[in-house]
Amino acid sequence: ADLPTIAYVRSQLGWTALRNGNYTQAIEWLEEGLALYQQTDDLLSVALTFSGLGEVALRQNNLDKATILLEKSLKLRREYDHTWGIAASLGSLAWVAMRQGQYDQALRCLNESLSIRQNIGDMGGIAWCLEKRGEVARIQEDPARAVRLLAAAARIRASVNSIVDPSDQNAYDTLIEGLRTELTPTIFDAVWAEGHDMHLEQLNAYAFPA
Q: CA 37, CA 2: separation in Å to the nearest integer?
């Protein structure tokens, strides 16, 4: 088989391992894919593989390594004006910043990522950005904003049959349950309904007030 095909197969195996939470295997396959891609002129696939390795590092809480890898992916994607990729790299960098407690930086990245995703109609990506923004709101002690954003994200996901990444489902469920307890179930349900009914146009301004 030819080099690009082998590179593609290795990378796909790596992504599958990543989604299944098998990080050691994911690193091995993604690094093999990266080494092969770097022998071709397919720099967007190099960027994609950097972002995969960056996500593994992030999930392993190896935040400095994650930042380096994700910034490499973002740089290549900006050079090629690969809009979806730019949004994805920015989203992952926002997540790293959240883990590091750098919330202003996280919000800057999320805001840019959300704007791009809205321009290209990436509904699953829009929902993901709103969920992450909701997590920041919760950390910054604004539980009602968190619930409205999570509700809006849930409605968007339902409209396109998008699901929360299986490896993030437990954290998502814990977040929702925590907010329900914090606000009391009655208030939670009322606030959830408000968020559920928000239009996409309102959401940007609500998520990132000027």
A: 11
Cβ-based neighbour number of residue 93 at 10 Å = 26
**Which 8-state DSSP code applies to residue 20?**
T
Name the DSSP letter for residue 62: -
Predicted local distance difference test score (pLDDT) of residue 204? 87
- HSE value, Cβ hemisphere, 13 Å, CA-based, for 140: 15
Place of tokens 């208030």: 187
Place of tokens 């509700």: 151
DSSP state of 41: S
Instruction: Show the tokens assigned to 120.
Output: 């290209």
Residues 127-185 pLDDT 10s: 999 999 999 999 999 999 999 999 999 999 999 999 999 889 999 999 999 999 999 99
Nearest to 73 by CA among 97, 54, 58: 54
Which of 187, 200, 94 has its CA nearest to residue 146? Answer: 187
Separation of alpha carbons 175 and 180, rounded Å:
9
**Entry pTM:** 0.94
In this predicted structure, what is the pLDDT of residue 149?
98
